[in-house]
Amino acid sequence: MSTTATAPPAAGTAPEAPAKGGKKKLIIAALVLLLAGGGGYWFFLKPAGPEPAPEPGEVLVLDPVQINLEGGHYLRIGIALQMTNNVAHAPDGSKALDATIDLFSGLDMADLGKAKERHHLKEELLEHLEHEYHGDVMGVYFTEFVTQ
């Protein structure tokens, strides 16, 4: 078995330096990758700006319906739907009337006399109708609201 030993560098000579440009090439490659990734995100994955608000379209007025309330009372309610201008065909009002009946049936007549409660119920009805009509309804109006 033989071993080879290397002699220590002689005094006055500089140790060998690693190849120059290795770190520079690594930094340049990293910058190119970062720029390419940023450019890809900018063009392909960047979220779009806010969607423009829908513009009002036709107002669909529905015939009033009578709904049974608590304690033998009833509510006669008429509604109108503010549609967006994106509606291609005349919408069917039966979904809106069904949602209105479901929401108001069995409520207390005294609660319906309070403006805050009516406003809350209108907002709840609008949320339900936005879902049912896939965003084509942007407003609900009470055209008739009579309790007895």
Automatic annotation (TrEMBL):
GO cellular component entries: bacterial-type flagellum basal body; plasma membrane
Domain of life, source organism: Bacteria
Primary subcellular site in the record, as a coarse category: membrane
Keyword set, alphabetical order: Cell membrane, Cell projection, Chemotaxis, Cilium, Flagellar rotation, Flagellum, Membrane, Transmembrane, Transmembrane helix
Compartments, record wording: Cell membrane
A UniProt-annotated Pfam family: FliL
Topology with respect to the bilayer: Single-pass membrane protein
Transmembrane annotation, as ranges: 26-44
GO biological process, any: bacterial-type flagellum-dependent swarming motility
Family stated for the protein in its record: Belongs to the FliL family.
UniProt function note: Controls the rotational direction of flagella during chemotaxis.
Protein name in the entry: Flagellar protein FliL
Organism: Nocardioides marinus
